[in-house]
Write a structure and sequence with these properties.
Blueprint (H helix, E strand, L loop, with lengths): L1 H22 L5 E3 L5 E3 L2 E3 L2 E4 L14 H8 L3 E4 L9 H17 L2 E4 L12 H14 L8 E5 L1 H4 L3 H14 L5 E4 L6 H7 L8 E4 L20 H13 L5 E6 L3 H4 L10 H13 L5 E4 L9 H4 L5 H15 L6 H4 L9 E4 L10 E8 L2 E8 L5 E8 L5 E5 L5 E3 L1 E4 L5 E9 L4 E7 L7 H5 L1
Parallel strand pairs: 4-5, 4-11, 5-6, 7-8, 9-10, 10-11
Antiparallel strand pairs: 1-2, 2-3, 12-15, 13-14, 14-20, 15-19, 16-17, 16-20, 18-19
Helix pairs in contact: 4-6, 7-8, 10-12
């Protein structure tokens, strides 16, 4: 009996050790053929923050700040030095604190490599420091993706210098991708020269359209919040399907807090539209910028170093819809459906739904339609050419509202399944249907 007890204790200790080893090891992060991010093989729609609350910082009600972000659905946080700081020994110690805190909360870091993100030929000292930073953190459980150079096309960083840094990073660490964000500047051709597979694995753009006057962050003529989708489409064209595109959206930025500017934040309606429009136009991840900017914080939030007021009132409900705990996750990580679906304006014969943007994704028998309406008049939209489904569709996040599926016949006697709904400017609706039969041949619909 005594021998048996000892054996049980030893086995228990071994199991505990194995569990600890597993939980403290780094993850393998990859990208599949649909440009979806995978962590140890599990598909994820990344939601990140730049910059997040400091390690150990709490919310006003005393909860760990990083845990609060994770519990709502957040998964990534941009770390690394800012301002005049660089990757010296002091910052490496700070980064370790970040990564430890991220791992504890269930999140992962996106360390900005800053001055080490571009390396000229023969710069042995910088290469040595880059290799040291990569080796220090590549096996940390809080490690996510490396953030390369910031807005290199706008800053005219030599492309060979980016390629040199990328090759070193991937040589040292083949399990964590490199993410680079571009400014809302440049042309498709100039941006494509930078967003090539020799400089990064994930590309993206930061775009902050909410300001007074509006639209000053971009050079495009559009000054509405639909500017987000315009830049997402540009980056999708730049990427050519070769890599994921992540959108960096605003909480706050220099255009609303610097001297002479009017402090303003996106409303819930605006923020939700920008998030969904990003996804509908191709984004495979979202990052939120400016939650930490000191001059944008209330006195209470200043004590905690992060904009918890904006988080509570506006951002958290949106993260809950899109984060890792969302019922929409199967759609967010699925490939685009080839289902032929049309949208027309009710009351205007043969009129396509101008300003309506939508995306169809499928997961087994579940059909998801993500739709948003740009600026303009309110309209009633009729969607057609659904496959056979249940007679009602769920309008997700708007319970108990539903839409009714109705069936009509075309001139050839073919069944046409569809539904109708209203859209005001910047409205978003997310529909979920259950398929009950095969998908009709899309050729008939096109004819």
């Amino acid at each position: 009996m005594r021998y048996l007890t000892v054996c049980v204790l030893v086995l228990s200790m071994c199991a505990t050790f194995v569990g600890a080893q597993s939980s403290s090891s780094s993850s393998k992060i990859t990208i599949n053929e649909d440009n979806v991010l995978l962590i140890d093989g599990k598909k994820i729609f990344p939601i990140g923050f730049t910059l997040p609350p400091l390690p150990g910082a709490t919310t006003p009600d005393g909860k760990d700040g990083l845990q609060e972000l994770y519990d709502a659905g957040g998964s990534f946080m941009r770390t690394g030095p800012s301002g005049s700081q660089g990757w010296d020994d002091d910052w490496i110690a700070k980064e370790k604190a970040w990564q430890d805190a991220a791992a504890k909360a269930g999140m992962r870091c996106l360390p900005w490599l800053k001055e080490l993100a571009h390396i000229g030929e023969g710069d042995a000292e910088k290469e040595k420091r880059l290799r040291h930073v990569i080796d220090t953190f590549k096996n940390h459980p809080g490690m996510g993706c490396w953030k390369g150079d910031d807005e290199p096309e706008w800053g005219k960083t030599p492309v060979p210098h980016l390629e040199r840094a990328y090759s070193i990073i991937r040589e040292q660490d083949p399990t964590h991708p490199v993410w680079i964000v571009e400014a809302p500047r440049g042309t498709i051709d100039t941006l494509r020269a930078y967003s090539n597979p020799k400089t990064r694995d994930i590309t993206g753009v930061d775009i902050y359209p909410v300001s007074f006057p509006p639209g000053i962050h971009s050079l495009l003529p559009n000054d509405e919040i639909s500017l987000v989708g315009d830049h997402a489409r540009i980056m999708m064209d730049v990427a050519q399907g070769k890599m994921p595109v992540w959108l960096t959206l605003q909480v706050a930025w220099s255009g609303v807090w610097k001297e002479g500017r009017t402090l303003t934040f996106p409303t819930y309606h605006q923020q939700r539209f920008m998030a969904y429009q990003s996804i509908i136009t191709g984004a495979r991840g979202l990052i939120y910028f400016g939650g930490n900017l000191p001059t944008t914080l209330t006195p209470e939030d200043s004590k905690h170093g992060w904009n918890w007021t904006y988080w509570r009132k506006t951002l958290r409900p949106i993260i809950e819809e899109l984060g890792h705990k969302s019922p929409l996750t199967p759609a967010l990580v699925a490939k685009n459906s080839d289902m032929f679906l049309t949208a027309k304006v009710i009351g205007v014969p043969f009129a396509r739904a101008k300003g309506l943007e939508y995306l169809v994704r499928e997961d087994g028998d579940d059909i998801y339609i993500l739709a948003c309406k740009r600026e303009g008049d309110a309209v009633q939209i009729h969607f057609e050419w659904l496959p056979p489904t249940n007679p009602t569709g769920e309008v997700m996040f708007e319970s108990p509202r539903k839409v009714m599926v109705k069936t009509t016949k075309d001139e050839k006697g073919n069944a046409i399944h569809g539904f109708t709904d209203y859209f005001g400017p910047f409205d978003v609706h997310v529909y979920k249907f259950k398929r009950t039969g095969p998908n009709p041949t899309t050729k008939r619909a096109r004819e």
